[in-house]
Amino acid sequence: MISGGFILKIIVDTLGGDNSPWANIEGAIIELIKHRDLSVIFTGDETQIGEVLEETFEKVMASINKYDKNPALIDNLKSRIEIVHAPDIITGNDKPTDAIRLKKDSSMMRSIKLLREDESISAMVSNGATGALVAAATLRIPRIDGVRRPAFCPILPTMKGGVIGVCDSGANVDIKADLLQQFAIMGSKYLEAAFGIESPRVGLLNIGVEEEKGDDLRREAYKLLKETPEINFVGNMEARELLSGDFDLVVCDGFSGNVLVKSVEGTALELLKKIKDDIYSKKKYQVGALFMKQMFNEEKEFLNYQRYGGSVMLGSEKVIVKGHGSSDKVAVAKCIEQAYKMVEGNLNKKIAEAVSGAQTE
């Protein structure tokens, strides 16, 4: 809960996702009910947003009339919602620079403009095109003092019941060792603020665990990370160790990180399909599966990457969370929750202080 009566304002881009605008709006309502100090600005088609809101409120009314008889909740929700008409959509086929220049009335560009110009707005959540969002945020939103480049940091589950962040996962392809150092600092502060992980264990993505492994960049980065007191560096991490639970954060260039995350997500999805196909291949497997149905459902939820939120753009002066294009309402709610916790935990201030400390040592 934000103290002192402060209302935390978050922009929710309602267009661009596979399940938009329904998922975006319903996910936001979930968080508005949860956090009474939260307000939301929806950007998108005003008429469409209004229609979805009315249907969503009807669902909420049906639920509260059944359980706690509190219809006044709807009035409270409406008082914390604003709508900004922005009917254009940026698609994955749009060239990012063209989208920024030509689609000024798109929900994403209007969101970025509001985020930059309105000091009362703390964060933005979008499921739209990644390239356009990165380009627009990089060009239009100032960086935290001392941060050279922003970086994406998605979250994945581990085999020990925790989570691991991957920083960077696509924003920066060509980097140097000092950028990896900043990624480690920003990612560590993020995990502390949003997930309550004390002294996150940081690994450097490499082809082996020995200190001398890898190319010149990785060897230089290893030495730099080892000498950075602002982080808990535990050494190199091979890709197969990503979900082991032995690391809380892995730092890498954006190309390697993007390949790593998508490979793991793809493997999880294909494995679930294989298990399902195998079960239906034989009667005896189907009978056995009946007794293991609950376990299979639990494993399916564990492997569902959408349940762990979106990719946070670390290093921007305002909080930006990029959700998966296929996000449902629960996934959107998780993204908004991430943004809420980052603002509540003064993440950007902590990043600025840590980055500044690393530069003066």
Judging from the principal axes of the Cα atoms, what is the shape?
globular
Radius of gyration: 21 Å
Number of helices: 13
Structural class: alpha/beta
Which regions have little confidence, pLDDT < 50, spanning 5+ residues? none
Helix fraction bin = 40-55%
Strand content: 15-25%
Strand order of the largest sheet: 3-2-1-4-12-11-5
Could you state the order of secondary-structure elements as H and E? EHEHHEHHEHEEEHEHEEHHHEEHH
What is the rounded distance between the termini? 35 Å
Overall mean pLDDT score?
90
What's the count of strands?
12
Give a quick account of the main beta sheet: strands, pairing sense, barrel closure: 7 strands, mixed
Report on the structure:
There is one protein chain. The chain has helices at residues 22-34, 46-67, 72-78, 96-102, 107-117, 130-140, 177-195, 216-226, 254-279, 283-291, 293-303, 329-344, 347-360; strands spanning 8-13, 38-44, 81-85, 121-126, 151-153, 155-157, 163-167, 201-205, 232-237, 249-251, 311-314, 319-322. With 361 residues, the protein is an alpha/beta fold. The strands form 2 sheets. A 7-stranded mixed sheet has the order 3-2-1-4-12-11-5, sandwiched between helices. A 5-stranded mixed sheet has the order 6-7-10-8-9, sandwiched between helices. The longest helix is centred in the last third of the chain and has 26 residues, at 254-279.
Present the secondary structure layout.
Layout: E1 8-13, H1 22-34, E2 38-44, H2 46-67, H3 72-78, E3 81-85, H4 96-102, H5 107-117, E4 121-126, H6 130-140, E5 151-153, E6 155-157, E7 163-167, H7 177-195, E8 201-205, H8 216-226, E9 232-237, E10 249-251, H9 254-279, H10 283-291, H11 293-303, E11 311-314, E12 319-322, H12 329-344, H13 347-360
Parallel strand pairs: 1-2, 1-4, 2-3, 4-12, 7-10, 8-9, 8-10
Antiparallel strand pairs: 5-11, 6-7, 11-12
Helix pairs in contact: 1-2, 1-12, 4-6, 5-6, 7-8, 7-12, 7-13
